[in-house]
Amino acid sequence: MKQVIDLRSDTVTKPSLAMRQAMAEAEVGDDVFGDDPTVNKLQEKVALMLGKEAALFVPSGTMANTIAILSHTQLGDEVIVERESHTFCYEVAAASVFGGVQLNTIVGNSGILDADQIAKEIREVNVHMPPTRLICLENTHNRGGGKVYPIQKIQAIHELANQRGLKIHLDGARLFNASVASGISPSDYAKYFDSVMFCFSKGLGAPVGSIVVGSKVFIERAHRFRKMLGGGMRQVGILAAAALYALEHNVSKLAQDHENAKLLANELATLKGFQIDPEQVETNIVVFDISKSGYSGAQVVEKLKQRGVLMIPFGATLVRAVTHLDVSREEMRRAIQIIHELFG
Ligand code: TLP
In which band, very low, low, confident or very high, does the pLDDT at 316 lie, cut at 50, 70 and 90? Predict the structure, then answer.
């Protein structure tokens, strides 16, 4: 059987035997009653780790962001997001549908916004206008090619939010990738946000699950919204056990994913018609432009697929590859070899 090298996303990892063992042995209870000891342990651990009062385990990153937005806002409020953010591009308008908020999008530089850009978009109090209530940032930035948010920019946006009485939420689906790449701890990022979410089901290698952290009052509201959206889970300690395992064993492995991504980016940069600046590849996401290659993104993806290398088109002329726990250095080298054979 041809072995596939799956670089479509870091969501494709399969739980290891040791993780499955931890899941099998997890103590469980009905979490809607608050009775699941493993979920409670995970929530306490993550709240402490991020320096916040409380945490809530949720089924997905999309639900985490939606719950956070709903918890910070009221019907008719405005939320500032980056134009290429996951919340704007890929969450099926959940914040608008369920929260009745308007998203005001600002175009960033590889997904990164400056405080000045945001300041211009904060609305005056005026009967004609929706009140600006919340700013959402994304770190690392997915469509920005896994870009790490510079901490000085976060600090400036945090100050602005404070001055203008706004809340600030972090989509930290890949917060640990940012942390490993920058050397800045998750709690040093989290202190600039009222709420933070991150995912266990991406680079950390768990099969399911994300978590939202914030103040006790915020998490109480978030808890109600989780129930409202159908995210109240029962003996979910088996998933929390995978998340605990991931935190303990898989964070340190992210550096290897970042090295593999850099290796790939360096090779792609040598190919005629493929555009990428390897310097810009800071974490595990590699987005490259093939517009000058004579192929469409879909064609490049199809040719690779026939040779057992999976990536995804990321727009008409862009292709994305994501490195992760289930792609070894050797497999990365094999994928690079195939790319050279096809496009070199
Ligand atoms: N991202 C997925 C796809 O939805 C695009 C991927 O393959 O990268 N925030 C960010 C920054 C994300 O990248 C994702 C997932 C989410 C939120 C949503 O997480 P899930 O898929 O658990 O709802």
Answer: confident
**What is the residue range of 261's domain?**
252-343
Could you say which of 249, 279, 307 is where a domain stops?
Answer: 249
Residue 3 confidence (pLDDT) = 87
Residues 196, 114: one domain? Answer: yes
229, 261: one domain: no
Strand partners, 78: 102, 132
Residue 88 has pLDDT above 70, yes or no: yes
User: Cα dist. 125→58, 76, 129 in Å?
Assistant: 35, 13, 7
Mean pLDDT confidence for 258-271: 97
pTM of the predicted model as reported, rounded to 2 decimal places: 0.98
Report CA torsion sign: 182, 185, 188, 191.
positive
Please tell me the distance between residue 61's alpha carbon and the centre of ligand 1 in angstroms.
6
| Alpha-helical segments (H) within the chain | 17-24, 37-50, 61-72, 86-90, 94-99, 115-121, 151-163, 175-182, 186-190, 216-228, 237-249, 254-268, 297-306, 329-343
Q: In whole angstroms, what separates CA 116 from the centre of its chain?
A: 24
Does residue 261 share a domain with residue 153? no
4 domain residue, yes or no: no
Distance 173 CA to ligand 1 centre (A): 7
Does any ligand 1 atom lie closer than 6 A to the CB of residue 141? no
Residue 60 Cβ contacting ligand 1 at under 6 Å: yes
Cα dihedral value 291, 293, 297, 303, nearest 10: 180
